């Protein structure tokens, strides 16, 4: 963890979720309350009670300024979980807080305020109003908040510029590509200036090139504004690309929650290991994990290349290969280790980390 990571981790969470359950079906609340039922397999539970578990005993925090990705295969519970955060779906049990405030205790007005101003959702189907222009679509959220016309139009124009749609203010949604429509949806959500943006698979209907473009847009917005984002996807590459941390779901549970590097480098179980098997490790693992301790002479030396501790192994390979000598790994200007050909190649071969080499040799 870098000093900056520690600072973020120390701040109070934006969302704090504890032991959250969502069970669909008759008398759903008895399922989490009855250990015997809670432990049944999905099939047995359905047979005995007619209930389906969408989210099963999930706990996590979303920290200020991070992109928190909820990832998993179809049916794993992603949408249910994220909809519970603002009670678009009513949780069955457990607790949810936003900035320390109990979401489950909010009345209708507070919930409306929560969804409009504090945690705005960007859906895959962006729900644009077909007869309105781009400008009016973006301004719509502000209109229902009662913001005066001139002010909301100025704000909308600013957001349109931010998402790269300048010049298209007067078009109608039908005159835009899918990617451009998604940008309008994004600008509309941003116009309300919410503390958190919740994205429900926003790019899954887009073709791969436009999808990549939109991912870059999210990364850029996040970098420029530091806005907290919760992002649902079933696409591992997308999760690894944009996520600061990823919660990987299976059967309603979070099976692992961690940075892309933790998920790829230290999978919690065989399911996660299988899930990340084809990921190009060198693009995710950083030199902090790959490095070996520096000798005294190396730590004191000042010759040869250097890389920052957050550099990926792929980038470090480039540096070390060009220079031909090991690189010193620097954190806050201090040498914390060395990466040479051997330790970099061990990552590519999937052998880094304690015991991996021995296991492979066995
Ligand atoms: N209204 C509902 N009634 C009954 N079961 C539901 C309901 N909504 C979702 N489920 C079930 O809850 C589980 C989780 O569904 P959810 O839609 O959250 O998954 P997901 O990971 O978002 O899937 P996808 O990627 O396909 O959207 C599934 O088994 C689903 O069938």
Automatic annotation (TrEMBL):
It comes from the Bacteria. It holds the Pfam family ABC_tran. GO terms for molecular function: ATP binding; ATP hydrolysis activity. PANTHER family: GLYCINE BETAINE/PROLINE BETAINE TRANSPORT SYSTEM ATP-BINDING PROTEIN PROV (PTHR43869), GLYCINE BETAINE_PROLINE BETAINE TRANSPORT SYSTEM ATP-BINDING PROTEIN PROV (PTHR43869:SF1). This is Glycine/betaine ABC transporter ATP-binding protein. InterPro entries: AAA+_ATPase, ABC_osmolyte_uptake_ATP-bind, ABC_transporter-like_ATP-bd, ABC_transporter-like_CS, Gly-betaine_transp_ATP-bd, P-loop_NTPase. The keyword tRNA-binding does not apply. GO terms for biological process: glycine betaine transport; response to osmotic stress. GO terms for cellular component: membrane. The keyword Transport applies. Coiled coil: none annotated. Keywords: ATP-binding, CBS domain, Nucleotide-binding, Transport. Belongs to the ABC transporter superfamily. Residues 40-276 form the ABC transporter domain. CDD domains: ABC_Pro_Gly_Betaine (cd03294).
């Amino acid at each position: 963890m870098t000093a900056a990571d520690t600072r973020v981790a120390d701040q109070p969470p934006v969302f704090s979720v504890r032991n959250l359950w969502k069970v669909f079906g008759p008398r759903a609340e008895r399922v989490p309350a009855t250990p015997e039922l809670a432990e049944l397999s999905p099939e047995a539970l359905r047979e005995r009670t007619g209930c389906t578990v969408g989210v099963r005993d999930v706990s996590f925090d979303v920290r200020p300024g991070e992109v928190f990705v909820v990832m998993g295969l179809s049916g794993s519970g992603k949408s249910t979980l994220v909809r519970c955060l603002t009670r678009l779906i009513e949780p069955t049990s457990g607790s949810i807080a936003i900035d320390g405030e109990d979401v489950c205790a909010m009345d209708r007005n507070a919930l409306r305020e929560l969804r409009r101003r504090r945690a705005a959702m960007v859906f895959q189907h962006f729900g644009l109003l077909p007869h309105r222009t781009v400008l009016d679509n973006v301004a719509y959220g502000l209109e229902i908040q009662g913001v005066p016309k001139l002010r909301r139009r100025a704000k909308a124009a600013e957001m349109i510029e931010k998402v790269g749609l300048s010049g298209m203010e007067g078009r109608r949604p039908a005159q835009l590509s899918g990617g451009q429509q998604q940008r309008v949806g994004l600008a509309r959500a941003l116009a309300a200036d919410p503390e958190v943006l919740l994205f429900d698979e926003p790019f899954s209907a887009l073709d791969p090139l436009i999808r990549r473009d939109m991912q870059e847009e999210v990364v850029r917005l996040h970098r420029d504004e530091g806005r907290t984002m919760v992002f649902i996807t079933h696409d591992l590459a997308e999760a690894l690309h944009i996520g600061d941390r990823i919660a990987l779901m299976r059967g309603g549970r979070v099976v692992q929650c961690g940075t892309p590097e933790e998920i790829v480098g230290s999978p919690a179980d065989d399911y996660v290991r299988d899930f990340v098997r084809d990921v190009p490790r060198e693009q995710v693992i950083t030199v902090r994990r790959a490095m070996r301790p520096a000798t005294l002479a190396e730590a004191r030396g000042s010759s040869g290349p250097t890389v920052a501790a957050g550099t990926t192994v792929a980038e470090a390979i480039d540096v070390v290969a060009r220079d031909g000598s090991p690189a010193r790994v620097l954190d806050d200007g201090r040498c914390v280790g060395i990466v040479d050909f051997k330790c970099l190649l061990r990552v590519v071969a999937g052998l880094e980390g304690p015991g991996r080499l021995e296991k492979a040799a066995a």
